[in-house]
Design a protein that fits this description.
By secondary structure, the chain is of the alpha/beta class. It folds into two domains: 219 residues, Metallo-beta-lactamase, Chain A (4-Layer Sandwich), CATH 3.60.15; 70 residues, Winged helix-like DNA-binding domain superfamily/Winged helix DNA-binding domain (Arc Repressor Mutant, subunit A), CATH 1.10.10.10. It is 37% helix and 22% strand. It is built from twelve helices and 14 strands. The strands form three sheets. Strands 1-2-3-4-5-6-7 form a seven-stranded mixed beta sheet. It has a five-stranded mixed beta sheet with strand order 8-9-10-11-12. A two-stranded antiparallel ribbon has the order 13-14. Strand 10 and strand 11 form a beta hairpin. Helix 9 packs across helix 11 and helix 10 crosses helix 11. The model has no long low-confidence stretch (mean pLDDT 95). The structure holds zinc ion. Zinc ion (ZN) binds next to loops.
């Protein structure tokens, strides 16, 4: 635990996801207690780490509130355990709390056929679909302790007072349905969650629950929400180290996606499946699990191009969806 701004402490917890390794959580001194922002994955080891911090670093003061930026298990995983452990409320946006509650309750052993069909129509082969089936469909529930049935809703623009200092909620989209960032106006810090990361770009994907989604447009539309914050803002991301240079990073993130959109558009030509386009976006070999996230990411880019009229989709007699450049984008080229 490391104090990065007056009263605001950086807590690092391990996560067994290659390339991520750690998640950053935030413990904020809050009068007679502590407010936690994000909680870590569900595991006994992480609960033990928390207990060590409570015993040695919290000065005998209790946790009085848990805030989660979004529903992903590395953020929400221990929220249920923490809220019950301290008998305190969970603060989240409606979209994130309800999406997480829904997914946790949607745990079934058998992968629904419409989920299989979603991946099949985008070109995932039967051998991989068999392995996907074998993994079951309840992985989210395994990553979280029971999410509280009741929550305290936070809304975009709301000012939350923590330890006598104001934090403004900024709701951003694309990575998760209603991701809350917290701008600490008095401290000059931005708890950015997974929305703005320093080294990697946030995952933005299309999934079977919303097969027509256009999350990359939502993500790019959310970047300007942060442009009005001061240049010297200390950004506190969920992965990687705290950094300054917010505006340069916003420009890099937008540029990164522009570059990928152009590469995909150039590769679409006469009609290709999302699966066939993965080598355009990912040079490294994809394993049997990461291919599904990669496909979601490719679809996020393809849907943005489709919604802006640059690509059209057709469904072939083989049932496959293929994307091709539209007459409009051919003319522009
Ligand atoms: Zn996330």
């Amino acid at each position: 635990m490391l104090e990065v701004a007056p009263g605001l402490h950086w807590v690092r917890m391990p996560i067994p996801i290659p390339g991520l390794d750690f998640i950053n959580l935030w413990a904020i001194e809050d009068g007679a207690g502590w407010t936690l922002v994000d909680t870590g994955l569900r595991s006994r080891a992480i609960q033990d780490h928390w207990e060590t911090i409570f015993a040695n670093r919290f000065g005998g003061r209790p946790v009085t509130r848990v805030i989660c930026t979004h529903f992903h298990p590395d953020h929400l995983g221990q929220a249920g355990w923490l809220c019950r452990r301290w008998n305190v409320p969970l603060w989240m946006t409606l979209g994130e709390w309800s999406f997480g509650r829904m997914l946790a309750l949607d745990a079934v052993e058998t992968v629904p056929e419409e989920v299989i069909g979603f991946y099949r129509q985008h070109g995932i082969g039967e051998d991989l679909l068999e392995k996907f089936r074998a993994r079951g469909f309840n992985n989210f529930a395994k990553g979280v302790t029971e999410i509280p049935r009741a929550f305290r809703r936070i809304c975009d623009g709301e000012r939350i007072e923590i330890g006598g200092r104001a934090f403004r909620v900024i709701v951003a989209r694309g990575h998760a349905p209603e991701h809350a960032c917290l701008y600490g106006e008095d401290l000059g810090v931005l708890i950015s969650g997974d929305q703005i990361l320093p080294r990697i770009t946030p995952h933005i994907g299309v999934y079977p629950g919303e097969p027509e989604a256009n999350p990359l447009a939502q993500y790019l539309d959310s970047l300007p929400l942060f442009e009005g914050l001061p240049e010297n803002t200390l950004v506190l991301p969920s992965h990687g180290d705290p950094f300054r240079g917010l505006h340069a990073r916003l420009a890099q993130l937008a540029h990164h996606h522009d570059h990928r959109l152009l590469a995909l558009l150039a590769a679409c030509g006469e009609g290709v499946t999302a699966r066939e386009l993965l080598p355009v976006l990912f040079r490294r070999e994809l394993d049997d699990r990461s291919i599904f996230m990669a496909l979601g990411e490719a679809l996020a880019h393809l849907h943005l191009l489709e919604c802006s009229g640059k690509l059209t989709r057709t469904r072939g007699s083989d049932g496959m969806i293929r994307f091709r450049r539209s007459a409009r984008s051919e003319a522009a080229a």
